[in-house]
């Protein structure tokens, strides 16, 4: 699989795909997309990178162990639900706020944080499986 | 009742837990001197609860609480009367001394901070247990004491004996906890009473209730396991594997008294019946004699004390079971006395162990010159344990004999049992307090000298308090004994016993007890051998029975697991899909719910094309000559389905389907290459036919189910709800996403947790193949 063309293109392809996955994640609330699909896209990006250039560059690039990323995702997803408790409303009630960034209205919300958590869980778990399987091809 | 006091009590209930949180950091910073700071927490509790003494002595009670789960009617509430107050004072008072003692006992231990933390957590749990009012609060704290006890017994977790003792204690007291829960729920559902204070005010309601006996047995199941009554007594001596401060605190002064506390708490509403006055004295009396006799058998100071603790708990249960005002009074006096002298003696045993390097009474002697303060403290405690003046234990013993007497055959029997038990405890108490100190100097593993202040301050203070409470007996009766006894008896009780002996039957019985006790003390060595021979002859005990039960449970579990989890992937898959096919085909056949024959679909040309691609994919799966081609062909079919989703207005679904198909193909291909399977499928035709049949049945079943579902009447309520509310209340136009992250967010949270755990499991599975266990007897690989 390690052809010259594939290896040359893979980093750009991966970067663009990860960028696209973030885009898909953020548009999810109003357009097709969301954390689950975004996480799948990002995971496939890393899987492609792993097939093209080997697993250790991917692990270096990710820096954290994929399962750590997954655990972090689950943590912030749970945390986003806890936030509402401090507002005196039941667990996981959506809280919304609007802030203005450079004159553009941006909606921030606990469901968004939750969706980001889903993104990380799916990304971490799927990338973990793919990388672990690819790694065993090398030994 | 004012709110400030209420929130202060709530703070007091949680203070030990807060202290437990800071203990490790504090110990890292201050070393063993952290004990001085940490002891402030129980000291604060002691002062706080001591403030209630005058009010409680006047006969009032203090209650407070907060709503916990209002929808279930459950409250977090507490209730202070004489009984809980005396317990609270014992727990916090002895707790303060124990924290100080632990500071020196575990000085320099790498996990001293953790130890403090466990200890304070236990303290909080115990405090909560005795103050709890609502059943739920009681149960939660009850279980917390079992769990913290487990942590403390297994503190030295590198030793197998500790781990076994910890697990044993957890299983026995945990099983009792379930029994308690069942009993409380039974009372709750049958009578509607959800807290102790309501129950205490219910008069004869419980005694006349049809569930009385069932509830009593279940609640006693909890009390007897916790308080180590025969035949559940075996876990307590084993728990001596814990560091000595734990034995002194949990397994003599406080936790094991939780069962006695419960029995005393129930006495006003459950007592005074035939069942109560039969069950409790029989079990209590049997425990008293068993504990006393087994104590003689031991040579380890801690084990001797542990068995006398078992005996004392039996005595307390027996006295509570007798139930007369005098007997209750005696039980209360003995409980207070026991907490003080037994806590002190355990600390002394620990000090001897710490300084001399052994706890074996046959290898100790002549330490009096080296450890004078410890000797004095031990002696004072033994005097109280032996029931001699001028200690508090004397008052307790006189009252026991005054309460029992020889009124009829039954009480005469109990009196004889009490005398035998007391004589045995007298002998053991002095054996522990005298034998290591008197006689000729014996070489000990460590060169013994007096322990530091932190080691002897605990037993010394307890000794002095035991003396003071006896001398000023009028004061201690008025403030501690009477309120507690009144709470236990359910009516106002007044004690008059003092150090001035009244010539009469009790004094005579005391004298006889002392004479027998001295005789046992002198003949301890031959008696020890005799009991050892007797036990060897019997050769079986509940401790062995526990092991047999555990082993039996495990082998049954292993047999069941071996039957269902044989480790053959092909059989798992066959069973799974046969069940799916059966569920899909048999169910509609039984209920006559097969779909009608569908009309021929009016599709557009490109829709036909997509369908054709899907069918072509399937055809190529069947025709594929090697596995890799089959996997990719399956992906083609999946993409065709994804295209169908786009065409029929489910972009989200199709998006996900595309990604899942892609990743499935990649991962399946990776798995296939890793498994080193032969590229083609070489199974015999017979097996292939069976699998093809199962696959066909599954496909047919799903197809029929989908047809049937789409032919039914479509309920518009939910789609309408989401369409109407998605943007209005959840600010999102993508209904699918809004459902996932907002409306049904809790489901998603559960699902992503499953995804993560599955990821961990897969990682473990992939790694396991590198080093498959060869000698793992427990894993019987099927292939």
Strand order of the largest sheet of chain A: 1-2
Provide mean pLDDT of chain B, rounded. Answer: 89
Record field, number of beta strands of chain B: 2
Helix content of chain A: over 70%
The gross shape of chain A turns out to be elongated
Our Rg estimate of chain A from Cα atoms comes to 17 Å
Roughly what is the average pLDDT of chain A, rounded to an integer?
86
Number of helices of chain B: 33
Most extensive interface: A-B, 49 and 40 residues
Helix content of chain B: over 70%
H and E order of chain A: HHHHEEH
Instruction: Name the beta content range of chain B.
Output: under 5%
The side-by-side strand order for the widest beta sheet of chain B comes to 1-2
Quick rundown:
In chain A, 73% of the residues lie in helices and 9% in strands. Chain A has helices at residues 4-27, 35-53, 55-62, 66-86, 110-138; strands spanning 96-101, 104-109.
Search tags:
heterodimer; A: 139 residues; mainly alpha; two-stranded antiparallel ribbon; 5 helices; 73% helix; elongated; B: 783 residues; two-stranded antiparallel sheet; 33 helices; disordered C terminus
Describe the model.
- The complex is a heterodimer of chains A (139) and B (783).
- Chain A has helices spanning 4-27, 35-53, 55-62, 66-86, 110-138; strands at residues 96-101, 104-109.
- Chain A is mostly helical and 139 residues long.
- In chain A, strands 1-2 form a two-stranded antiparallel sheet.
- The longest helix of chain A is centred in the last third of the chain and has 29 residues, at 110-138.
- The radius of gyration of chain A is 17 Å and the shape is elongated.
- Chain B contains 33 helices and two strands.
- Chain B has a two-stranded antiparallel sheet with strand order 1-2.
- Chain B is elongated, with a radius of gyration of 35 Å.
- Chain B starts with a helix and ends in a 15-residue tail after the last helix.
- Classes of the chains: A mainly alpha (139), B mainly alpha (783).
- The A-B interface holds A 28-37, 40-41, 43-44, 47, 51, 66-67, 70-71, 73-74, 77-78, 81, 91-92, 94, 96, 107, 109, 111, 114-115, 117-118, 121-122, 124-126, 128-130, 132-134, 136-137 and B 651-652, 655-656, 659-660, 662-663, 666-667, 670-671, 673-674, 730-734, 736-738, 740-742, 745-746, 748-749, 752-753, 755-756, 758-760, 762-763, 766-767.
